[in-house]
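Something for you to look into today, if you have time. Just paste the record in under my message, thanks.
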Amino acid sequence: MTITQGGTPTGVQGITEADIANYLAASPGFFERHAELLGSVQLASPHGQRAVSLQERQMEMLRDKIKGLERQFIEMIRNGQDNVLIADKLHRWTRALMLTANAADLPDVLVRELKHQFMIPQAAIRVWGGAEAFASLSFARKVDDDVKAFASSLGVPYCGANSGFEAVQWLGDAAQAASIAMIPLRHESLGGAFGLLVLASPDPTRYTADMGTEFLARIGEIASAALTRLLPSA
C-alpha cells in the first residue's frame, strides 16, 4: 500500500484489515478530514440486531465500561465495609481479653468472646506448661505428647476437614465438627507451642485447606500474648 502526500491510500491491492487499522492509528487527522464518515459508518450493536453509528457504538462501549467500573467500585465499598466489621469484632475481642483481671479466667473469656464475636459454633483451648497455680483448671488438662508435637510443628494455622484429630475431642460435640481450624499458641521464650486453640463448624466449607490463614494467625498472636500470663515466667 502506498500513501499520497495528503495521507490517502492510492491502491487497495493486498491491503489487510491490519493495514487499515495501522493506518488509522497512525493518522489521527483522518476523521477530521473525513468527518462525514463518522455519521455514515454503521456497526452492529452489542445489545441487539440493529445497526448503530460509530458514535453510538462508542457511547455504548463507554456505558458498558462505566457500568463495569461501577460494579468494581461497589465491590470495593462492600469489601471495605466487611473489613471494618471484622476490625470491630477483633477490637471487641481483644478488649475483652485486656479487661480480664484474673489470669485464670483468660482461656474461658478468650473462647467465649471468640465464639460470640465471630459466630463460631464450637471452640476449645488447652495450655500446657503453665504455672502450678492453674494446674487444676480445665484448660490445663493433660495433653498427649503427639498433640503438643503437632502444635509445635504448625508454621501457620491448620485449616481443613476433621480427619479424626485428637484435639477435636476437646470440643463439646466433636461429631458436629465437619471442618476445623487449629491455631498454635507460642511465646518467643519457648522452643515450641505452649497451647492450641481449636475452632470448629458443622459447615465443611467454613475452614478449608486453600483458605488464607493470615487472620487466624493474628488471632493466634493476640491469644498467645494474652495467655502468657499463665506461664511460670509471666
About this structure: The CA atoms of residues 27 and 78 lie 44 Å apart.
